[in-house]
Amino acid sequence: MKHRVRFTKLGKIRFLSHRDLARVWERGLRRSGVRVAYSEGFSPRPRLSFGLALSTGYESLGEYLDIDLHPDADIDPADLPAIVTPSLPDGMTAQLSVPLVPGTDSLQAAVTSSSWRIEVDGPEPAALADAVARALSADELPIVVERKGSETTLDARPAILALSTATEEIMLPPGVAPLRTSTLLDAELATQPRSLRPAELLRALDATWHEARVLRTHQWTLVDGARCEPIPLGDLGARGATSPTHAEARAS
Amino acid sequence: MADVWARLEPHLASVQKPARYIGCELGAEVPTPAPHRVGWLLVYPDTYEIGLPNQGLQILYEILNERPDALAERSYAPWTDMEEVLRREGFPLFSVDTHRSADEFDVVAFNLSSELVYTNLLNCLDLAGIPLRSADRTIDHALVGAGGHATFNPEPMADFLDWVVLGDGEEVVGEITEAIAAWKASGSRDRIDVLRALAGIEGVYVPSLYEATYLPNGCLEATTPIDSAAPAVVEKRTIADLGAWPYPKNQLVPLTEVVHDRLNVEVFRGCTRGCRFCQAGMITRPVRERPADQVASMVQQGLRRTGYDEVALTSLSTADFSGIEDVVKSAMDDEVGCGNVSVSLPSLRVDAFTVGIAAQIQKARRTGLTFAPEAGTWRMRQVINKLITEEDLYTAVESAFEQGWRRVKLYFLTGLPTETDEDTLGIVELARRCLELAKANGKDGSVTVSVGGFVPKAFTPFQWFGMNTEEELRRKVNLLRDAAKKARNVQLKWHDTRASIVEGLVSRGDRRLSAVIEQVWREGGTFQEWSEHFQLDLWTKAMADNGLDLDWYCYRHRTEDEVLPWDHLSAGLHKDFLWQDWRDALEEVGLEDCRWTPCYDCGACTGYGIEHVVASAVPPAGGSQGTGQNLLRGGEVPVTLSARRPVGVGA
Predict the structure, then answer these.
(1) For a FRET experiment, which of A239, B242, B448, B515 has its CA 20 to 30 Å from that of A175?
(2) Are B22 and A23 within 8 A, CB to CB?
């Protein structure tokens, strides 16, 4: 039985790579006594599938993972976050878990965009606001990006679904330093058909700017045209979800 | 500023593998400094991924943090990109546990497991803002120490180290802590007071309290105490009972990739197989087994606590552990692993019995099997006292191919004493015969041969041997390459012969090499054990600049009466025992394992009033076991462990 889990990646552990994260989850599940189904074959591995990779160094309030539990795993899926979180390092908290209806799209296929909070190094606040306005009114924003080792030019503009400067603070757990509020961007960037990374967005705005801290705040799927998280967030709250009810109905 | 983290964090995105520097491992401690606690910074002078798994460092980390009068944090050599950040921004070396600056610790202690990391040690001291030379340090600087196998000849590092531990660290770190705490409490303003106190602790060597003098011919005359607190000979420390030290209890579980990334449980310490090239086997005597039930509980609790799905039962020859089969079986049956726990046995003995155990534990992931015959002919193996018969190897390999392995890896040394080209070429011949056995089984196997240049080490019977020149080692490697090309499916790998020379230089070097090591470091020679950073010319130039002769240090046979740089230190072994063993080697005479046969008085037990701790009074089954008898059924050598009859070896 597959379960979808939403979790955070905050603080010092933001420097773990995507591969490290998989290792941490495998061990965390074993430590917490949650039995996971293993793949068949010569070298059996626990059946875990992760969503979109988060770049090493970026933080997130909403990462996702699908866990295929062993048929004999005797736990209530709603309890999974509470069971596994103590076995995860500081900064990783499993928040929610739901069982998946068989045939549900994989995270890779389902997620169409991510929301980001980006702390920008370089500009004055006014210059940042100007750049946002310019980008939004542009028809195209060509940038050179590296994909699989070779450089290509792509138009960043279609992948920018929303962009604004931000001032309000996002509450982070104790022990995680707050983001600097003077030059913050909120952006929603498409992951399909082509993904645009926060660092690439900044390059499209001004080649001399760099991201300081980057926080993924949401991942979005489209369900019948409505934008919702891969798990209904309930009390956690999803700023900007258009109609979570339908997704909730499907997920439960 | 105490916490380096806030300043470091913005730079982490720009370095490779930033997770090396964040700490946060399961098992990591966040100790609170206090005036009455002696603060230790334990440094492994290589990268995080090499250093983190080091069990010695982890054991001491736990023992110190359990003490109310001590605390311990860890640091690793920053990779070159991070070093650049630290130097550019003026950041100090820091601990990964709380990211405190190195200058906040009372003690900076290094684990020295190989000689090629010595320049990294200097680099770490420099980054920590500590003067390189002991003589230049004041009361405001940390006490700089070292332990680990390489410290059995610490002389090349004598100018840089305030103190050195010889042997097991479990007990002695507590005594060092107490001596330093008492010194701090005394209000003494002089480092000599604490150095004297340290020199009074058994197993602790304080190099600055000794003077080395040289003869006109360049040889060492003597290393003698120049302070009444310094003993004429410093004996190593040995813990009598491994069972009293069930550490690590909270093995560190890294969040990022490291070598040996698995649960490690040390099943015994010490080895009496008596391989003459092996420093570890000589300096860690006697054999002290951990009780089997303690091994089982450490495995079980360790798997539960860490979430690992692999456990290594470590020692210098794990198949020799009494009751190894039961221990392996209980580890595999552990319910936590749900049948998915794999057990690995590093240092496999070469025989079919071992392969049987290996088959049992590698049910799922049967990738490759590694043996270390070490030499290509029986004659050569008698010289080095690695008494594996050809039959042992062939039955082991045949059994491996029968049971489904396809790849076998064989470790060898070249450049051994008395080695002829026939011995060298015997290496490929053995590999070729192994492949024939695979073919006879209808399998298309492959054999990888890994060859290292032999480096003589202190406190071994080969400490007098002038090692092969770099040219000679290279010639032998080329002989092997040509021979391997003709043998299908034999892959040959070899170590950089130039690195072996530097290892040889430093292994048996004296205090005059301190200037050489410092110069190599000043000219940028860090990470010398990494092939992409190793630079032989830095070493040869530094030798020449300091008026020293590399050939004299490396390639010269020592005579019986020559004073060796480590003669004022002791691993318990009588020098005349080692000399006799060296003579026996040259006469191709093997020596049995004293664990199961009468004592031949090497000195390691008798000198310290300790004994072997082994649960079984008979050798395990399989192979000839170095006894010259067929022991396929095991237990055929009748011995009593209590009867300690010194036998005059070769007399």
Answers:
(1) A239
(2) no
